[in-house]
Design a protein that fits this description.
about 250 residues, unfolded protein binding, coiled coil, signal, OmpH family outer membrane protein, about 5% strand, elongated
C-alpha cells in the first residue's frame, strides 16, 4: 500500500508540470509571463540546496564512558490483595469506614423523613396562616433543610477524606515492608502476582510481607466521629426560636 501511494504521489508530481505546459499552450498572451517566470525557476533551484542543508542531521555526540552494569536480576512476587485481606489495619479501616457510611445514610434517611413531615404539617396549617406567616414558615423550613444538607455533605466529605488518608498510610507502610523483606532476601525486583503466569513458591514473599506489615502497623489511629448527631439537633434548636416570632407577627399587623 505504501509503494502504491509513493507511485501515485510521484505520478502526480510528474503530471503537474505537463498540465502547466498544456495550460501555457492554450492561454494566449502568456509569452511575457513565461519570461517573467523563467528567471524565478533558478531562484527556486537555489533554495532547494538551502532546504537540503537545513535538513541535514546533527552530528552524533561522542559516546559516553562505560558505566557500571546493573546487577543480575533477583525477582520476587507479592500478592497485594491477599496482604490487604489479612492486614489488621486494612480490616479496621474498612469496617470503620463502612460503619460511618451506614450511620451517615441512616441520618440522611431520618432527615429526609423529617423534612417530608414538616412540609406536610405546613400544608395542613396553610389555611390558618396569613400570607406573611406562610412565607416565614416556608423560608424557615427551607433554611433548616439547606443547613442539614450542608452538614451531611460535610460529613460525607470527611468520611471519604478519612478513608483516603488511612489507605495512604497503609500503602506507605506496605511499601516500606516490601523493601525491607526484599532487602533481607537480596531481591532487587518485586512484581505483583497478576503479572506472573507461573512461579515457584520460593519466589513468593506474600506471607512474610503480610506478617511483617501486621507487626509494623497493627492498626490506624482514626479520629472520633464528632458530627454523628449534629443534623437532627439543629432543626430542634431553631424551631423554638422562630415560633415566638411567628406568634408576634399577627400582633404587628
Amino acid at each position: 500500500m505504501s509503494r502504491l501511494l509513493t507511485f501515485a504521489l510521484a505520478g502526480a508530481m510528474f503530471a503537474l508540470p505537463a498540465a502547466a505546459q498544456q495550460q501555457q499552450w492554450f492561454v494566449p498572451g502568456q509569452g511575457q509571463q513565461q519570461q517573467q517566470q523563467q528567471p524565478q525557476r533558478p531562484a527556486q533551484a537555489q533554495q532547494r540546496p538551502a532546504q537540503g542543508q537545513a535538513q541535514r542531521p546533527t552530528p552524533t555526540p561522542p559516546p559516553l564512558p562505560p558505566g557500571q552494569s546493573p546487577p543480575a536480576p533477583v525477582i520476587a512476587i507479592v500478592d497485594v490483595p491477599e496482604i490487604q485481606r489479612v492486614s489488621t489495619a486494612f480490616t479496621q479501616v474498612r469496617e470503620a469506614i463502612e460503619q460511618r457510611r451506614a450511620r451517615l445514610n441512616d441520618d440522611l434517611q431520618r432527615e429526609q423523613q423529617r423534612w417530608r413531615d414538616e412540609q406536610q404539617r405546613l400544608a395542613n396549617e396553610r389555611a390558618g396562616l396569613t400570607p406573611e406567616q406562610l412565607r416565614t414558615r416556608e423560608r424557615d423550613l427551607q433554611d433548616r433543610i439547606t443547613d442539614s444538607q450542608r452538614v451531611l455533605r460535610d460529613r460525607a466529605r470527611d468520611v471519604e477524606q478519612l478513608a483516603q488518608t488511612s489507605l495512604r498510610e497503609i500503602e506507605q507502610a506496605l511499601g516500606i515492608v516490601i523493601r525491607q523483606v526484599a532487602t533481607s532476601r537480596n531481591v532487587n525486583i518485586v512484581l505483583p502476582r497478576p503479572l506472573v503466569i507461573f512461579n515457584e513458591p520460593q519466589f513468593d514473599l506474600t506471607e512474610e510481607v503480610a506478617a511483617q506489615l501486621n507487626r509494623m502497623l497493627p492498626s490506624v489511629n482514626l479520629p472520633a466521629e464528632g458530627a454523628g448527631e449534629q443534623p437532627p439537633a439543629r432543626p430542634a434548636q431553631q424551631q423554638p426560636q422562630q415560633r415566638p416570632q411567628q406568634g408576634q407577627q399577627p400582633r404587628r399587623n
